[in-house]
Amino acid sequence: MKAIFISRPGGPDVLELRDLPTPDPAPGTVRVRIHAAGVQPLDLAIREGFRPPYAAPDLVPVPGNEFAGVVDAVGDDVHHWHAGDEVLGFTFLGCYAEYVVIPADQIVAKPATMPWEVAGGFTAGAQTAEMAWEEVEPGPGDVVLVHGAAGNVGGYAVQLARRRGARVIGTARPEHHDYLRALGAEPVDYRGDLVGEVRRLAPGGVDVVLDGAGRGALEATVALARDLRRTRTIYEHEAGPKVGVMTLSGVRSAERLERLVAMSAGGELSSLIRSTYPLEEAADAHRELETGHGRGKIVLVVRS
Question: What is the average per-residue pLDDT within 230-246?
Fold first, then answer.
């Protein structure tokens, strides 16, 4: 199969299109012929050499941990899924490829109305946002601040917080403010006096914060949050806990993903695709993501 291989730690140029063995499904797993795979900041970190403590030492360095495609083969003891089923799901690495083998409980059915590129880039952003809200529980009467609200995680976080009845303030560049208003957020420009602008909208501070941006958002979180126990960051894994802003502790699940997919299919949750790239142009996709200023999701199209 064709796959994107990290030849060595470094910049986008270390991503190489290679021929790798097509994996066979083991018992309890399925093989999926990938149509689309999401691109996310974790992929950039893996490319640069980051390995989380749970990563296997002999892990084949193929980035990507969300995908959509068609079940191609099933292992022993798998009865719910069959060849030809259209699915989306998640795993740790391996998705910048034509095929991926994953446990059968890490996929859900793809609605016929969900485009492949949306399905391929859905699970990471939607689940991350929902996991954050499961931990800090925004609700009616709460003022929520979302840093990086125009990004993929941020866009879902705005919508899910609004569905819980919260008021949402979102940070973004001015060119993305109309987009945030359409999602139901009150936009502020993070490049000026961010703390002052948020206090203008919420003089008493904010109840809940999700840092989906990094790059200086931590200081504003500490200055504005009424209770740091109701703050979360998805970027500042070392600095955040030192000042009382914790990282997410939840794990992705098919049950949660199925709920979110149903919301998307029912028109209750919208997705925005920023751009798409063919698999062999993964390096260009990484370069765009590294700019840090776009809105929505970047997706690799593996098979049309």
Answer: 93
Residue 262 placed within a domain: no
Residue 37 phi, psi dihedral angles, 5° rounding: -140, 135
Can you read off the two tokens belonging to residue 97? 């490829």
Mention every residue, 6+ apart, whose C-beta is less than 8 A from residue 87.
32, 68, 69, 70, 71, 81, 107, 108, 109, 110
Total Cβ atoms within 10 A of residue 86 = 17
Long-range contact set of residues 221-227: C-beta below 8 Å, sequence gap at least 24:
221/145, 221/147, 221/245, 223/195, 224/145, 224/195, 224/198, 224/199, 225/145
The domain containing residue 219 runs over which residues? 125-247
Residues 98 and 138 in one domain: no
Q: How many domains does the chain have?
A: 2
Residue 68, classified by CB atoms within 10 Å of its CB into exposed (0-12), middle (13-18) or buried (19+), is buried
pTM for the predicted model, two decimal places: 0.94
Q: Can you give the CATH number for the domain in which 206 is found?
A: 3.40.50.720
- Over residues 145-162, the pLDDT tens digits come to 999 999 999 999 999 999
Sorting pLDDT into bands at 50, 70 and 90, what band is 53?
confident
**Does residue 21 share a domain with residue 129?**
no
- Tokens 């139901």 belong to which residue? 184
Chain-centre distance for alpha carbon 234:
10
